[in-house]
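Good morning C.,

I know you're traveling, so I'll keep this short. The sequence:
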Amino acid sequence: MIFKRTDISRFQKNLVKWYQVHQRKLPWRESTDPYHIWISEVMLQQTQVKTVIPYFLKFIDRFPTLQDLAQSDLGTVLKMWEGLGYYARARNFHKAAIIVTKDLNSVIPNDFYQFKKLPGVGDYIGAAVQSIAFNHPFAVVDGNVKRVLARIYCIKHPVNQPSSHKHFKKHADRLLNKSDPGTFNQAMMELGALVCTPRKPQCHTCPVSKLCKAFLSDQVDIYPRRIKTKKVPTYHIAAGIVREKGKVLITRRKLKGLLGGLWEFPGGKLDENEDANAACIRELKEETGITVQIESHLTTIHHAYTHFKIKMDIFYCKYITGSIHLNGPIDFKWIRLKDIDRFAFPKANLKFIPMIEEE
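The tokens, ready to paste straight into the viewer:
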């Protein structure tokens, strides 16, 4: 194990030296603006770097400053976030931008504990932004860092068990280079992303392999340890494209919860022993108050979320009778298909929207 100060110092030196040579060229690393750093860290939570890059560039082009973000409506923000997933990140970031603009004179807090009071700012975001933007000595602990630490120390605590976090945090704090915490944190995350990977880690090119307990004891494949997760359930959903006089009906989800604030084609889960056609008619009646008739089946799409999967049958529906009385959604609109790009939809809807034809 690395317990001696000389070992820790060597670990820090070797890691940072490697990072300075091998780090990826990423747009947010070219900026010292705390706002840009904050955006990148929010987007990078549970999302791959290659996916984040175009969203980051598009986001800062649309909202160049924190004030620009705060002054925009949530619908616009969600549209810019569309397809990136985990939409609570966008909602919380928007709320935080409003608070900083109104209550803090548009100055992002240069204090870990004050910064953590903002919506969506937890230990990870707090440590990342405060260390990278302000050089404050807080160790970042994300999935990549946990994997590195698990192998360096042969940590037996499962990386996917919440109660294990304190053990990884303790080791991360001990290794942290407090004189340059931002660079060190980024180096740790980069090592996990490029070298100390989940499968087939590149130990022969690792700058700290000689200080890694798992490598020295030939146990790299054993770490990190994980608790086996339960099988992910699949839910069958039916949704309707209601066409009436050249327009289609869309509804907006509640602002809180999964996919909060996004627009969608109305529908819902099938009841036990219910077929998709009947479920579509029933769900539209329950959610919107209107009666429809199934015209045809458009397609079936499959989509995976973090903790469940969906199979969605989409139907063209003819409006029969009734006026809109919402039960669940918070808003509705009859729109022309040419205007559909103005609204933010869940990724599952985006899979079939290009297939929709005019009435």
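Safe travels,
E.
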